[in-house]
Design a protein that fits this description.
disordered C terminus; 4% helix
Length: 104
């Protein structure tokens, strides 16, 4: 299942995702291995990037909630990170014969 989410980096090895209680995302993620992907904005002036994180998702105890209102948190504890930066054709290290190339 692939879903768009609101997220923030909680610390060096955790990502915090916000959702509503009882949603499919909330029900499917307690103590579950998940993958999380974030990408740079399309059409941005800077090179584009993509990062994929694998880890275990947990639900914090209600007393640990940082979110307010009707939102709940899902925390992805990062086990593995991979990523790449896509360079434009005008970037000096990109070969002249391709439109873009992945680095990393």
């Amino acid at each position: 299942m692939i879903l768009p989410v609101r997220f923030r980096i909680a610390d060096e090895d955790a990502i915090r995702i916000e959702t509503a209680p009882g949603t499919t995302l909330h029900r499917a993620t307690d103590r579950t291995v998940v993958a999380f992907e974030a990408e740079g904005r399309p059409g941005a002036a800077e090179p584009s990037w993509s990062v994929v994180v694998h880890g275990v998702a947990t639900h914090p105890h209600p007393g640990d909630r940082i979110l307010t209102g009707d939102r709940v948190a899902i925390v992805v504890h990062v086990d593995d990170v991979s990523g790449r930066e896509v360079l434009g054709a005008n970037t000096p290290v990109a070969p002249a014969f391709t439109a873009a190339r992945a680095r990393w």
